[in-house]
Amino acid sequence: QVQLAESGGGLVQPGGSLRLSCAASGAYLSSLTMGWYHQAPGKQRELVARHTRGGIQNYADSVQGRFTISRDIAKNTVYLQMNSLKPEDSGVYYCKAEHLAAGTIHDYWGQGTQVTVSS
Length: 119
Prior knowledge:
It is built from no helices and 11 strands. The protein is mainly beta. Strand 7 and strand 8 form a beta hairpin.
């Protein structure tokens, strides 16, 4: 069982920055593929950034060049650095872990953290 705890959300002005954190427990980060998802009000949850177990990062087109996903193996924590924030980046950000166990991938979600981009 993997537990995830997100933090770092808040209110920021357009053009500002935030860094989200997702602390994992129950499994080593090096064995997990981690993702950050964004859910705007009334919309589906969408993948923003993904960091595979092997160290490959992928980004949604809408955040390419503005957001960076990284991980700290020693702290078992994954981060999402968000720069040049726009009002449309507002919403709840969720951390997801994909854990391969016994030949099956299990998905685990955090509780989410609210980001509001507004002047």
